[in-house]
Amino acid sequence: MKRLITLSFLLFSIVVFSQRKFEGKATYMSKTSMDMSRFDKMPEQRKKQMMARFKNFLEKTYTLSFNKSESAFKENVKLDAPGTSGPSWGRSNGQGSIYKNLKDKKMIEDTEQFSKRFRIVEDMEIPQWEMTGETRQIGQYTCYKATMVKVDNTIDWGSIFSRRGRNNQQKDSTKVKEEKPAIKTQIVTAWYTPQIPVSAGPADYWGLPGLILEINAGRTTMLCTEIVINPENSIEIKEPSKGKEVSRDEFNTMMKKKSEELRQNFQNRRGGRGF
């Protein structure tokens, strides 16, 4: 099976990459589910109101622009309906993107958090994907399944505002200072198609012999809903140049510090009470 996949990929690559240009755009729909068990003491009506406010934060659309060696992944920003804007730190100003350069093995995330703009620069290490041989159809494309275990560095912003999150934080503060926090991991499942032979994908995912059309990671699913190859108007992909340059570790440290400040401020306003 693996030999057949490789052969098909190489044959298709010869045809496509012999063209004068090869570029495209892919639209992705992203959905993230929220763990509502942490709000078990909240009245049902208030839960519904909260979910309505968080809808635009949990459901988003993105565009991935790509060519043979570069790609840029950017959120498609839309105006919020009254009362549904969600948290200010969950909104995008339309400036952020994730840029990948396969030739230079460099990835740059352009993001704005707490009114400050950053360029998170990191080397692209080849992801340790495991091919399963499973196939499925996504639209007109035959896709192959690959999985990997990834370190989860995301901040659980929702825990800041839940009683359970604060209780866990109080317990953690009683532990020995020298004790290192447990490393969180998650299983990532990707579906890619060799019919579009670029090693690109949504968010920071890449490293497969074909465009990734679907990603399942934790509570988030990103699914490609539209692809345009070699559009009439040429695609321009620019490397981000604005914002303070930081490493991934530096950025994560700053965000964790800010999350603790938010948690403390929220607890002080509520007098230590839950919702």
Number of strands: 12
What global shape is seen? globular
Q: Proportion of β residues?
A: 25-35%
Distance between the termini: 54 Å
Strand order of the largest sheet: 7-8-9-10-11-1-2-3-4-5-6-12
Assembly state: single chain
Sheet of most strands: 12 strands, mixed
- Total number of distinct structural domains: 1
Give the radius of gyration.
Answer: 21 Å
Q: Structural class, from helix and strand content?
A: alpha+beta
Residue share in helix = 10-25%
SSE map:
Elements: H1 2-17, E1 24-32, H2 44-58, E2 59-66, E3 70-75, E4 97-101, E5 106-113, E6 116-123, E7 130-138, E8 141-151, H3 163-172, E9 185-193, E10 211-217, E11 220-229, E12 244-246, H4 248-270
Parallel strand pairs: 6-12
Antiparallel strand pairs: 1-2, 1-11, 2-3, 3-4, 4-5, 5-6, 7-8, 8-9, 9-10, 10-11
What's this model, at a glance?
This protein is of the alpha+beta class and about 280 residues long.
How would you describe this structure to a colleague?
The chain is α+β, with helices and mostly antiparallel strands and 275 residues long. It has one domain (2-174, 181-270). Helix content is 23%, strand content 34%. It contains four helices and twelve strands. The chain has helices spanning 2-17, 44-58, 163-172, 248-270; strands at residues 24-32, 59-66, 70-75, 97-101, 106-113, 116-123, 130-138, 141-151, 185-193, 211-217, 220-229, 244-246. A twelve-stranded mixed β-sheet has the order 7-8-9-10-11-1-2-3-4-5-6-12. Strand 2 (59-66) and strand 3 (70-75) form a beta hairpin. The longest helix has 23 residues, at 248-270. It is globular, with a radius of gyration of 21 Å.
